[in-house]
Amino acid sequence: MRQDATRAQQDGHASENGNVHQLGHGKQVIGLTGRHVIALVAATMSLALMGMLASYLLYRSETHRDPVGGALPESPRTVAEGGDVKVAVGMQAEGGSVASKYMPNAAEERKHFAVLGSGWGSAEYRSFARKQHLVRTGGNAVKLSVTNVGERRIRVINIKPIQLRREEPIDEVVYEPCCGAGGEEGLIADLDLDSPQPRLIVDKAEYFKGHSIPVDPGDSFDVFVNYTSKKYYASFLFEVNYLNGVGELKALPVEDYDPVARGERRFEVTAPPAGGLSGYKRIYRPMQLEPDPKTGAARFRYQRIAQ
Fold first, then answer.
1. Average pLDDT of span 256-283
2. What rounded mean pLDDT belongs to the chain?
3. What are the sequence ranges of the domains in the chain?
4. DSSP element (H, E) containing 50
5. Would you say the pTM of this structure is higher than 0.85?
């Protein structure tokens, strides 16, 4: 499987002079050349932090586990479709702190933070999580899969952010991560949202400058995008630019998915406030409880840290 993916990755990338290598039918294009280094997609979010955070941080993962280690049904992913192309959005990064503009009241703290994950999926819990609108801090990583669903070869010529909005970083509330680390290997392109003109960057060069990716019918072009901001609370859509089977230039906007509101939302990330952790008005830190008496699974609660 990995060997086939590597071969497709090498065969499907245009060379610097614009010559395009043939892509074998039925293979998957990874989206970065064979000379690029495999990066590790950070995954430091613990299973014990599922509850509220799971609905935002883990909803796009291929597999899910609930706070006591059971299986959760796979959550929907964004799928944008337009003519010959379908784009699926899959979350790969797990972990890191998340921030929110909403300040929970005392009753909500008692109800939802005493044991993380209790009541997950209830209408009351979803209402609370909708108020939270959690946003990852610093950076995020997302997998974009561009699939040719037409009958002729297409050519992906660019993937870029559009409708970019920048605000002051969120400084109301931060939820710290906890526990162990894990990860998945994947090929990553960087997207600096602080740049005047953000573009996908690989090896310090704009990836699609002079490049295009041929995708045959039934094949997919996958790329992991690590998007970051050190200055702003930024939100945006992705746009996939491609030439269809008859050479027409097309643009397909792609949105993220909100598992709580069960609808599309913008991709978002926020820089920490000035002063870092001390710049937040409120900090919640996970604290370990006694294991679950029935299952023995680890349990956690959130404790508000005095500022």
1. 87
2. 75
3. 2-305
4. helix 50-57
5. no
